Amino acid sequence: MKAIYQKYILNFKQASGTSRGVLHTKETYFLKLTDNQKFGIGECAIFRGLSIDDRPDYEDKLQWLCENINRDIEELLSELIEFPSIQFGLEQAVLSLQSYNLFELFPSKFTQSKDSININGLIWMGSEAFMKQQIKDKLKAGFSVIKMKIGAIDFENEIALLKSIRREFSSEEIELRVDANGAFLPSEALEKLKIVSQFEIHSIEQPIKQGQLYEMAELCLKTPIPIALDEELIGVFNVTKKEELLQIINPQYIILKPSLVGGFKGSSAWINLAKKQQIGWWITSALESNVGLNAIAQWTYSLNSKMPQGLGTGSLFTNNFESPLEVKNGHLHYNNNKSWKFNLL
Q1: 149 and 264 in one domain?
Q2: I need a surface site. Which of 108, 127, 242, 254 has the fewest CB within 10 A?
Q3: pLDDT value at position 18?
Q4: Strand boundaries in the chain, DSSP class E
Q5: What is the pLDDT of residues 7-23, one digit of tens each?
Q6: Which of 264, 268, 266 is nearest to 297 (CA)?
Q7: Cα–Cα distance measured from residue 49 to residue 93, given in angstroms and rounded to the nearest whole number
Q8: Which one of 32, 149, 192, 209 is the catalytic residue?
């Protein structure tokens, strides 16, 4: 078996505001495995500024993987423990190589176009007018679950936005999730959560910055809104440490981005621990191309979760790869009448 990798720059259709600043481009890497006449593709979707593997030796590690590709997969995954996005790319590539169809990693009713995945509509950070327009667009597009990032504009304006949504739509009609990306100070967080709770919010992601375990634990104990951990999970490699973190904080939910937490294997470890503690969970993509999004979506469907997932980022880029993935009426579909156009490697 042989392996090569290639860097690829995804270009945003419009500048997208995140907690990491405004993004114009997104860097990613593709791993290709070749064995006789067969080959497999995986995406190593590093997220600069957020991924724990945003390190100067990232490409060195990819090169190491290519040179050692014939080692046992478990040995490789173990060696790549500090490079979760490369772990995930390797998992995808191996499944792709073994598959009858290059991009059908988990055959199911989803890949047969017989079922879909309920997803949330993401509202990007920006001016009040920009965020309002996005909300209108998502509702028009048939989304019943909206996720809004807060902490970008003035808190009072964000509250006004939430108020305007609830004025028009009840919690039965629209489920509202908010993501603070660690924007609140521990000293003010509880008070802000009380204000936000007026609007029947499903959950709030990462109200305070990660790494403040005991402050977050206290917040989860007293909060009027269910709290979901997101960034808090990044960089926790050891299963014992994962269990310890969940036991200390005891959140209501955890959110798993496979590219950031070690792919299918790393995400599954978190899910198993969460289930033990009766902590809810859902899966979210992290600005992957359609290659990575496809892998996440197929795996997510196999988990049989009824929770709306966070898998709708495939349409953000001008130079994404054409794929069967489509978003219709707030659901992610796999349209078998559309074919893949992947022209790299």
Answers
A1: yes
A2: 127
A3: 62
A4: 2-18, 21-35, 38-44, 117-118, 121-123, 145-149, 175-179, 201-205, 227-229, 253-256, 280-283, 325-328, 331-334
A5: 999 999 987 666 567 78
A6: 264
A7: 25
A8: 149
pLDDT for 152: 66
The segments of the chain whose pLDDT lies below 50 read: none
By percentage, how much of the chain surpasses pLDDT 70? Answer: 97
Q: What is the pTM of this model?
A: 0.95
SS3 state of residue 182: coil
Write down the residue that tokens 């067969």 correspond to.
Answer: 38
Give me the helix-helix angle, 239-249 and 213-222, nearest 10°: 40
Residues 179 and 282 in one domain: yes
Same domain, 173 and 272: yes
Alpha helices in 197-324 (DSSP H): 213-222, 239-249, 258-261, 263-276, 290-302
Residue 237: closest CA among 58, 87, 81, 83 = 81
pLDDT of amino acid 17: 63
Helix orientation angle between 290-302 and 84-98, rounded to the nearest 10 degrees: 80
As for how many domains the chain has, the answer is: 2
66 domain residue, yes or no: yes
Distance CA 107, CA 49 (A): 34
The Cβ of residue 243 has, within 10 Å, a number of other Cβ atoms equal to 17
Q: Known catalytic residue: 192?
A: no
Told to judge if 149 belongs to the known catalytic residues of this protein, a careful annotator would answer yes
Strand partners for 177:
147, 203
| Closest residue by Cα to residue 96 from 1, 183, 223 | 1
Show the domain range for 252: 117-334
What are residue 16's DSSP bridge partners? 23
Asked if residue 84 lies in contact with residue 53, where contact means CB atoms within 8 angstroms, the answer is: yes
CB 256 within 8 A of CB 267: yes
C-alpha angle with apex 143: 204 to 24, nearest 5 degrees? 70
Contact (Cβ atoms closer than 8 angstroms) between residue 204 and residue 181: no
Name the residue with tokens 């305007």: 164
The answer to the question of residue 90 being in a domain is yes
